[in-house]
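Below is how a single chain appears once it has passed through the pipeline. First comes the sequence as given, then the structure the pipeline wrote out for it. We keep one example in the README because the format questions we get most often are answered faster by looking than by reading.
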Amino acid sequence: MLMSTRGEVAVPDPALLRRFDVPGPRYTSYPTADRFVEAFDAQVLGNWLGKRAEATAPLSLYVHLPFCATVCYYCACNKVITKDHGRSSEYLAALRKEADLIASRLTGSRQIEQLHFGGGTPTFLSNDELRELMALLTERFPMAPKGEYSIEVDPRSTPPDKVAVLGELGFNRISVGVQDFDPQVQKAVNRIQSFEMTQATIEAARKADFKSVNLDLIYGLPKQSRATFARTLDKVLVLSPERVALYHYAHLPERFKPQRRIDAADLPSPQEKMGIMLDAIGRLTEAGYQYIGMDHFAKGADDLARAQQQGRLHRNFQGYSTRPDCDLIGLGVSAISKIGPTYSQNVRELDEYYDRLKQDQLPTARGVLLDMDDLVRRSVIMSLMCHFEVSKEAIEQAHLVKFDEYFRRELAELKPFEEEGLVENTREWISVLPRGKLLVRAIAMGFDRYLKNDERVRKYSKIV
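Resulting structure:
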């Protein structure tokens, strides 16, 4: 086991990156959401909510707030573009109804240790609406004293007074959307946002004693180059967030309608895009950020880095988490829940969401009940994604399998990664070496049985 390499990342040769740069899932779950089936419906979810008393997993809550005042052309999220702020009051009433339906079926502890507001733009809500939403949630799901409570914010709708309200409501982590500070890039993606505005939001968060500030960036956007993104990174390092997310832009206009407004001729070439990514990794690690995995970086003193160092890191639909593996309740359109060995997802369309709730039905659209094989493969994949290593003995003890026999075919397919010095496979461990960390998704894909001879793999974005 190469414990000393856990916080290290090395950049392989660009040709090697291109060789293994294949389309693949992000593994916020296993099986991934595209494997959910409609046979898993509201009744099945209700049954599993009723079984929670038998479990000891802590509880997490996710709330999807879909409204945005303007559209960002790169965005692939489930969102509703509107300038009518009156629409949020109807949505809050629906969230109240859904929370009641969940609470009436849920057994076991209702205290939440994690809360995350995502979107859309959660800060589309006014200060009074945010207070109303937190009140209706905490009446049904009380917050643990030392929990992790995070929210995604857009500085354009999050002035310092709103940040102060968020702190008063109990939020202690904030994720700030930036993507790029270059004016030409911002114009090309329809997101004009000054450095000063972003700085004011972050300074307000620190004044309100938020424990951690995350800053979101995207590489591969139109008008970007290595030179322009270097200037963005200069400003990021001035802001000095505790965490940085460096996302890869996947241009899929056939799937995501807003991306059709982006001129493909303005996108950086594959070589330039890879250069932007490699430059950013170098700058961030030189500045003291640790490579957590996928597209996340954190300062060494941040809880995320400490959780990885201590083997406590987990991964869920919001990304990496410092908390133990939780049951998750998702509220709102398209929100995903995880209860016991199940995943389920709400309907995606707002009108259908409202209609289901008016009929006193949970708005569940689809889901999946994991079988034994799913559970063992999930353990392996999540260990790779979070810790860059798998203890074969731990898998054998938890799932009563003989690792090398169970995964004989998968270990044979791992050989090309071993030969290139990306992975080490010993009798006791599979370890992703520093040169292989940027390709951990490709390595994890080898253990995903759903990808075998499946054309759906082409619909994923590329890894790099």
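The radius of gyration is 22 Å.

See the next section for the split statistics.
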